Amino acid sequence: MFSQTVEYALRAVVYLAAEAPAARTTAQMAETTKVPKDYLAKIVQGLARAGLVRTQRGVGGGVVLAKDPAAVTILDVVNAVEPIRRITACPLGLKAHGVRLCPLHKRMDNALAAVEEAFRATTLAEVLAEPTDSVPLCDGPRPERLTVRGKGAG
Amino acid sequence: MFSQTVEYALRAVVYLAAEAPAARTTAQMAETTKVPKDYLAKIVQGLARAGLVRTQRGVGGGVVLAKDPAAVTILDVVNAVEPIRRITACPLGLKAHGVRLCPLHKRMDNALAAVEEAFRATTLAEVLAEPTDSVPLCDGPRPERLTVRGKGAG
DNA sequence: AGGAAAAAGGACTTGCAGGTCCGATTTACG
DNA sequence: CGTAAATCGGACCTGCAAGTCCTTTTTCCT
User: Fold this and answer.
1) What is chain A's alpha carbon radius of gyration, rounded to the nearest angstrom?
2) CB–CB of B111 and A115 under 8 A?
3) B7, B44, B39, B10: which is closest to B25 by C-alpha?
4) A58 is near strand C: CB distance < 7 Å
5) Scanning A44, A108, B5, B87, which has the fewest C-beta atoms within 10 Å of its C-beta?
6) Which residues contact A5 (CB under 8 A, 6 or more apart)?
7) Which CATH number fits domain A4-133: 1.10.10.60, 1.10.274.10, 1.10.10.10, 1.10.3080.10?
Protein backbone atom coordinates (compact mmCIF):
# COMPACT_ATOMS: atom_id res chain seq x y z
CA MET A 1 0.00 0.00 0.00
CA PHE A 2 2.75 2.41 0.90
CA SER A 3 5.80 2.25 -1.34
CA GLN A 4 9.22 1.26 -0.11
CA THR A 5 10.41 4.75 -0.89
CA VAL A 6 7.85 6.24 1.47
CA GLU A 7 8.75 3.76 4.18
CA TYR A 8 12.44 4.55 3.79
CA ALA A 9 11.91 8.30 3.75
CA LEU A 10 9.90 8.14 6.95
CA ARG A 11 12.53 6.08 8.71
CA ALA A 12 15.22 8.49 7.62
CA VAL A 13 13.39 11.59 8.71
CA VAL A 14 12.33 10.13 12.04
CA TYR A 15 15.92 9.18 12.65
CA LEU A 16 17.11 12.67 11.81
CA ALA A 17 14.46 14.11 14.08
CA ALA A 18 15.67 11.92 16.91
CA GLU A 19 19.21 13.15 16.39
CA ALA A 20 18.29 16.77 15.71
CA PRO A 21 19.85 19.21 15.65
CA ALA A 22 22.87 17.03 14.98
CA ALA A 23 23.87 16.10 11.46
CA ARG A 24 24.28 12.53 10.27
CA THR A 25 25.88 11.08 7.18
CA THR A 26 23.79 9.02 4.81
CA ALA A 27 25.96 6.07 5.75
CA GLN A 28 25.03 6.43 9.40
CA MET A 29 21.38 6.88 8.53
CA ALA A 30 21.44 3.85 6.27
CA GLU A 31 22.93 1.62 8.90
CA THR A 32 20.58 2.59 11.71
CA THR A 33 17.43 2.63 9.62
CA LYS A 34 18.37 -0.49 7.64
CA VAL A 35 17.87 1.26 4.31
CA PRO A 36 20.10 0.49 1.29
CA LYS A 37 22.78 3.16 1.46
CA ASP A 38 22.91 4.32 -2.15
CA TYR A 39 19.18 4.30 -2.51
CA LEU A 40 18.79 6.31 0.67
CA ALA A 41 21.11 8.90 -0.84
CA LYS A 42 18.64 9.45 -3.68
CA ILE A 43 15.73 9.70 -1.30
CA VAL A 44 17.59 12.25 0.78
CA GLN A 45 18.07 14.33 -2.34
CA GLY A 46 14.33 14.42 -2.78
CA LEU A 47 13.82 15.40 0.84
CA ALA A 48 16.36 18.17 0.37
CA ARG A 49 14.59 19.48 -2.73
CA ALA A 50 11.39 19.60 -0.73
CA GLY A 51 13.14 21.62 1.95
CA LEU A 52 12.67 19.03 4.68
CA VAL A 53 16.36 18.44 5.22
CA ARG A 54 19.57 20.29 4.51
CA THR A 55 22.63 18.57 3.11
CA GLN A 56 26.24 19.51 3.39
CA ARG A 57 29.00 18.10 1.22
CA GLY A 58 32.54 17.44 2.22
CA VAL A 59 34.37 16.49 5.36
CA GLY A 60 32.18 16.83 8.44
CA GLY A 61 29.11 17.25 6.28
CA GLY A 62 25.94 15.22 6.29
CA VAL A 63 22.22 15.59 6.51
CA VAL A 64 20.27 17.57 9.07
CA LEU A 65 16.57 18.12 9.61
CA ALA A 66 15.71 21.57 8.28
CA LYS A 67 12.83 22.32 10.64
CA ASP A 68 11.67 21.73 14.15
CA PRO A 69 10.40 18.16 14.54
CA ALA A 70 7.17 19.59 15.89
CA ALA A 71 6.69 21.48 12.65
CA VAL A 72 6.99 18.49 10.33
CA THR A 73 4.12 16.07 9.85
CA ILE A 74 4.26 12.58 8.46
CA LEU A 75 2.20 13.90 5.57
CA ASP A 76 4.93 16.43 4.80
CA VAL A 77 7.41 13.62 4.40
CA VAL A 78 5.11 11.43 2.34
CA ASN A 79 4.20 14.26 0.02
CA ALA A 80 7.84 15.16 -0.40
CA VAL A 81 8.78 11.82 -1.90
CA GLU A 82 5.53 10.49 -3.32
CA PRO A 83 2.56 12.82 -3.07
CA ILE A 84 -0.78 11.29 -2.16
CA ARG A 85 -2.85 11.80 -5.26
CA ARG A 86 -6.45 12.39 -4.40
CA ILE A 87 -9.04 11.41 -6.97
CA THR A 88 -10.35 14.66 -8.33
CA ALA A 89 -11.78 13.55 -11.62
CA CYS A 90 -13.45 10.46 -13.04
CA PRO A 91 -10.64 8.03 -13.97
CA LEU A 92 -12.75 6.74 -16.85
CA GLY A 93 -12.15 10.04 -18.58
CA LEU A 94 -15.81 10.72 -19.20
CA LYS A 95 -16.37 14.40 -18.79
CA ALA A 96 -20.08 13.84 -18.43
CA HIS A 97 -20.01 14.73 -14.77
CA GLY A 98 -17.59 17.58 -14.62
CA VAL A 99 -16.36 17.91 -11.08
CA ARG A 100 -18.66 15.43 -9.44
CA LEU A 101 -17.24 12.00 -8.76
CA CYS A 102 -19.24 8.84 -9.16
CA PRO A 103 -20.13 7.02 -5.92
CA LEU A 104 -17.36 4.47 -6.33
CA HIS A 105 -14.55 6.93 -6.76
CA LYS A 106 -16.02 9.13 -4.10
CA ARG A 107 -15.50 6.29 -1.64
CA MET A 108 -12.02 5.65 -2.85
CA ASP A 109 -11.16 9.31 -2.51
CA ASN A 110 -12.64 9.31 0.98
CA ALA A 111 -10.21 6.55 1.90
CA LEU A 112 -7.36 8.61 0.54
CA ALA A 113 -8.60 11.57 2.52
CA ALA A 114 -8.58 9.48 5.67
CA VAL A 115 -4.96 8.54 5.12
CA GLU A 116 -4.06 12.14 4.43
CA GLU A 117 -5.80 13.22 7.60
CA ALA A 118 -4.14 10.57 9.72
CA PHE A 119 -0.75 11.58 8.41
CA ARG A 120 -1.41 15.27 8.75
CA ALA A 121 -2.34 14.79 12.38
CA THR A 122 1.03 13.51 13.50
CA THR A 123 4.29 15.41 13.75
CA LEU A 124 7.74 13.93 14.04
CA ALA A 125 7.92 15.30 17.57
CA GLU A 126 4.84 13.32 18.51
CA VAL A 127 6.30 10.17 17.07
CA LEU A 128 9.38 10.68 19.18
CA ALA A 129 7.49 11.61 22.31
CA GLU A 130 5.33 8.53 22.38
CA PRO A 131 5.06 7.62 26.07
CA THR A 132 6.10 4.04 25.70
CA ASP A 133 8.99 1.75 26.27
CA SER A 134 9.02 1.26 22.54
CA VAL A 135 11.45 3.68 20.98
CA PRO A 136 11.01 4.99 17.46
CA LEU A 137 12.25 2.87 14.57
CA CYS A 138 12.04 -0.20 16.73
CA ASP A 139 15.62 0.36 17.68
CA GLY A 140 17.18 0.71 21.06
CA PRO A 141 20.64 2.19 21.49
CA ARG A 142 21.65 5.25 19.54
CA PRO A 143 25.16 5.99 18.27
CA GLU A 144 27.07 8.77 20.00
CA ARG A 145 26.34 12.23 18.77
CA LEU A 146 28.39 14.14 16.28
CA THR A 147 28.84 17.84 16.81
CA VAL A 148 26.89 19.93 14.39
CA ARG A 149 28.59 22.82 12.69
CA GLY A 150 27.19 26.31 12.68
CA LYS A 151 26.16 26.26 9.05
CA GLY A 152 23.48 23.63 9.53
CA ALA A 153 20.85 23.42 12.16
CA GLY A 154 21.65 24.77 15.44
CA MET B 1 -1.85 4.71 -3.85
CA PHE B 2 -4.28 2.13 -5.13
CA SER B 3 -2.99 -0.07 -7.93
CA GLN B 4 -4.47 -0.14 -11.40
CA THR B 5 -5.54 -3.71 -10.79
CA VAL B 6 -7.60 -2.69 -7.78
CA GLU B 7 -9.15 0.18 -9.71
CA TYR B 8 -10.04 -2.13 -12.60
CA ALA B 9 -11.43 -4.84 -10.35
CA LEU B 10 -13.69 -2.36 -8.58
CA ARG B 11 -14.99 -0.98 -11.84
CA ALA B 12 -15.68 -4.47 -13.11
CA VAL B 13 -17.50 -5.61 -10.00
CA VAL B 14 -19.56 -2.46 -9.70
CA TYR B 15 -20.56 -2.87 -13.30
CA LEU B 16 -21.57 -6.47 -12.72
CA ALA B 17 -23.52 -5.42 -9.65
CA ALA B 18 -25.38 -2.86 -11.69
CA GLU B 19 -26.29 -5.49 -14.26
CA ALA B 20 -26.96 -8.26 -11.76
CA PRO B 21 -28.30 -10.84 -11.98
CA ALA B 22 -27.55 -10.67 -15.70
CA ALA B 23 -24.31 -12.03 -17.08
CA ARG B 24 -21.88 -9.99 -19.13
CA THR B 25 -18.98 -10.99 -21.31
CA THR B 26 -15.54 -9.70 -20.48
CA ALA B 27 -15.66 -7.83 -23.78
CA GLN B 28 -18.77 -5.97 -22.70
CA MET B 29 -17.31 -5.27 -19.28
CA ALA B 30 -14.10 -4.03 -20.83
CA GLU B 31 -15.83 -1.64 -23.13
CA THR B 32 -18.11 -0.09 -20.54
CA THR B 33 -15.55 0.15 -17.78
CA LYS B 34 -12.75 1.23 -20.11
CA VAL B 35 -10.43 -1.51 -18.92
CA PRO B 36 -8.02 -3.27 -21.32
CA LYS B 37 -9.93 -6.34 -22.44
CA ASP B 38 -7.27 -9.02 -22.08
CA TYR B 39 -6.04 -7.68 -18.82
CA LEU B 40 -9.56 -7.56 -17.43
CA ALA B 41 -9.90 -11.23 -18.29
CA LYS B 42 -7.03 -12.02 -15.93
CA ILE B 43 -8.50 -9.91 -13.17
CA VAL B 44 -11.85 -11.64 -13.55
CA GLN B 45 -10.11 -14.96 -13.07
CA GLY B 46 -8.85 -13.70 -9.74
CA LEU B 47 -12.31 -12.53 -8.74
CA ALA B 48 -13.66 -15.94 -9.67
CA ARG B 49 -11.05 -17.72 -7.58
CA ALA B 50 -12.07 -15.56 -4.65
CA GLY B 51 -15.67 -16.55 -5.19
CA LEU B 52 -16.89 -13.04 -5.95
CA VAL B 53 -18.01 -13.82 -9.47
CA ARG B 54 -18.94 -16.90 -11.43
CA THR B 55 -17.76 -17.45 -14.98
CA GLN B 56 -19.29 -19.51 -17.72
CA ARG B 57 -17.51 -20.56 -20.88
CA GLY B 58 -18.99 -21.01 -24.29
CA VAL B 59 -21.77 -19.43 -26.29
CA GLY B 60 -24.05 -17.34 -24.13
CA GLY B 61 -21.59 -17.50 -21.26
CA GLY B 62 -19.94 -14.67 -19.42
CA VAL B 63 -19.38 -13.33 -15.95
CA VAL B 64 -21.95 -12.86 -13.25
CA LEU B 65 -21.78 -11.55 -9.71
CA ALA B 66 -21.82 -14.51 -7.36
CA LYS B 67 -23.51 -12.82 -4.42
CA ASP B 68 -26.04 -10.20 -3.59
CA PRO B 69 -24.61 -6.70 -4.15
CA ALA B 70 -25.61 -5.85 -0.60
CA ALA B 71 -23.42 -8.68 0.67
CA VAL B 72 -20.23 -7.59 -1.05
CA THR B 73 -18.12 -4.78 0.32
CA ILE B 74 -15.47 -2.77 -1.47
CA LEU B 75 -13.00 -4.36 0.90
CA ASP B 76 -14.02 -7.80 -0.31
CA VAL B 77 -13.11 -6.82 -3.84
CA VAL B 78 -9.84 -5.17 -2.88
CA ASN B 79 -8.77 -8.11 -0.77
CA ALA B 80 -9.65 -10.50 -3.57
CA VAL B 81 -7.19 -8.99 -6.01
CA GLU B 82 -4.61 -7.32 -3.79
CA PRO B 83 -5.07 -7.78 -0.06
CA ILE B 84 -4.41 -4.79 2.17
CA ARG B 85 -1.41 -5.80 4.20
CA ARG B 86 -1.56 -4.36 7.66
CA ILE B 87 1.71 -3.74 9.45
CA THR B 88 1.90 -6.38 12.13
CA ALA B 89 5.60 -6.46 12.82
CA CYS B 90 8.48 -4.03 12.79
CA PRO B 91 9.65 -3.75 9.16
CA LEU B 92 13.22 -3.24 10.35
CA GLY B 93 13.24 -6.85 11.38
CA LEU B 94 14.40 -6.16 14.92
CA LYS B 95 12.66 -8.58 17.19
CA ALA B 96 13.47 -6.46 20.19
CA HIS B 97 9.85 -5.45 20.58
CA GLY B 98 7.99 -8.59 19.82
CA VAL B 99 4.45 -7.72 18.92
CA ARG B 100 4.52 -4.05 19.82
CA LEU B 101 5.00 -1.64 16.92
CA CYS B 102 7.14 1.46 17.18
CA PRO B 103 5.27 4.77 17.14
CA LEU B 104 6.00 5.41 13.48
CA HIS B 105 4.71 2.13 12.18
CA LYS B 106 1.82 2.28 14.58
CA ARG B 107 0.70 5.44 12.80
CA MET B 108 1.17 3.92 9.40
CA ASP B 109 -0.83 0.89 10.40
CA ASN B 110 -3.53 3.15 11.77
CA ALA B 111 -3.79 4.74 8.34
CA LEU B 112 -4.12 1.31 6.77
CA ALA B 113 -6.79 0.44 9.29
CA ALA B 114 -8.69 3.57 8.34
CA VAL B 115 -8.68 2.55 4.69
CA GLU B 116 -9.78 -0.95 5.59
CA GLU B 117 -12.59 0.42 7.69
CA ALA B 118 -13.74 2.82 5.00
CA PHE B 119 -13.83 0.01 2.47
CA ARG B 120 -15.49 -2.43 4.80
CA ALA B 121 -18.23 0.07 5.45
CA THR B 122 -19.50 0.22 1.90
CA THR B 123 -21.30 -2.46 -0.07
CA LEU B 124 -21.79 -2.57 -3.80
CA ALA B 125 -25.48 -2.02 -3.26
CA GLU B 126 -24.73 1.22 -1.45
CA VAL B 127 -22.52 2.39 -4.25
CA LEU B 128 -25.33 1.75 -6.70
CA ALA B 129 -28.02 3.29 -4.53
CA GLU B 130 -26.29 6.62 -4.11
CA PRO B 131 -29.09 9.18 -4.24
CA THR B 132 -27.52 11.37 -6.87
CA ASP B 133 -27.80 12.21 -10.51
CA SER B 134 -24.31 10.80 -10.84
CA VAL B 135 -24.55 7.18 -11.88
CA PRO B 136 -21.89 4.68 -10.90
CA LEU B 137 -18.78 4.42 -13.03
CA CYS B 138 -19.37 7.92 -14.28
CA ASP B 139 -21.30 6.46 -17.15
CA GLY B 140 -24.80 7.13 -18.31
CA PRO B 141 -26.61 4.79 -20.69
CA ARG B 142 -26.37 1.06 -20.23
CA PRO B 143 -26.33 -1.51 -23.01
CA GLU B 144 -29.44 -3.63 -23.39
CA ARG B 145 -29.67 -6.59 -21.10
CA LEU B 146 -28.78 -10.07 -22.05
CA THR B 147 -30.87 -12.85 -20.67
CA VAL B 148 -29.14 -14.85 -18.01
CA ARG B 149 -29.29 -18.55 -18.25
CA GLY B 150 -30.45 -20.76 -15.45
CA LYS B 151 -27.08 -22.18 -14.62
CA GLY B 152 -25.62 -18.87 -13.43
CA ALA B 153 -27.20 -16.37 -11.15
CA GLY B 154 -30.83 -16.24 -11.06
C1' DA C 1 -20.96 -33.56 -35.94
C1' DG C 2 -19.51 -28.84 -36.84
C1' DG C 3 -19.15 -24.03 -36.17
C1' DA C 4 -19.27 -20.07 -33.37
C1' DA C 5 -18.84 -17.80 -28.92
C1' DA C 6 -17.00 -17.45 -24.83
C1' DA C 7 -13.39 -18.01 -20.87
C1' DA C 8 -8.71 -20.13 -19.77
C1' DG C 9 -4.14 -19.82 -19.97
C1' DG C 10 0.60 -19.38 -21.63
C1' DA C 11 4.16 -16.57 -23.76
C1' DC C 12 5.72 -12.35 -24.49
C1' DT C 13 6.63 -7.13 -24.14
C1' DT C 14 7.08 -2.73 -21.72
C1' DG C 15 7.61 0.78 -18.16
C1' DC C 16 8.90 1.81 -13.76
C1' DA C 17 10.13 1.26 -8.76
C1' DG C 18 13.77 -0.30 -6.29
C1' DG C 19 18.47 -0.95 -6.03
C1' DT C 20 23.66 -0.87 -7.25
C1' DC C 21 27.98 1.08 -8.85
C1' DC C 22 31.19 4.48 -9.59
C1' DG C 23 33.19 8.69 -11.00
C1' DA C 24 32.63 13.93 -10.36
C1' DT C 25 32.21 17.62 -7.25
C1' DT C 26 32.39 20.08 -3.01
C1' DT C 27 34.39 20.97 1.47
C1' DA C 28 37.36 20.84 5.78
C1' DC C 29 41.68 20.56 7.55
C1' DG C 30 46.63 20.02 8.20
C1' DC D 1 47.99 22.58 -1.92
C1' DG D 2 46.82 17.82 -1.18
C1' DT D 3 44.03 14.49 0.75
C1' DA D 4 40.16 12.53 2.87
C1' DA D 5 35.23 12.77 3.66
C1' DA D 6 31.07 13.60 2.20
C1' DT D 7 27.07 14.56 -1.25
C1' DC D 8 25.86 14.67 -6.27
C1' DG D 9 24.62 12.60 -10.39
C1' DG D 10 24.59 9.53 -14.20
C1' DA D 11 24.57 4.87 -15.93
C1' DC D 12 23.16 0.60 -15.22
C1' DC D 13 20.72 -3.70 -13.44
C1' DT D 14 16.55 -6.38 -11.80
C1' DG D 15 11.97 -7.82 -10.70
C1' DC D 16 7.29 -7.00 -11.03
C1' DA D 17 2.88 -4.72 -12.42
C1' DA D 18 0.53 -3.77 -16.45
C1' DG D 19 -0.63 -4.89 -20.88
C1' DT D 20 -0.78 -7.63 -25.46
C1' DC D 21 -1.31 -11.60 -28.37
C1' DC D 22 -2.45 -16.06 -29.58
C1' DT D 23 -3.80 -20.84 -28.83
C1' DT D 24 -6.62 -24.16 -26.27
C1' DT D 25 -10.72 -25.57 -24.04
C1' DT D 26 -15.47 -25.44 -22.99
C1' DT D 27 -20.11 -24.76 -24.29
C1' DC D 28 -24.27 -23.79 -27.02
C1' DC D 29 -26.81 -24.06 -31.14
C1' DT D 30 -28.15 -25.85 -35.59
Assistant:
1) 18
2) yes
3) B44
4) yes
5) B5
6) A43, A81, A82
7) 1.10.10.10
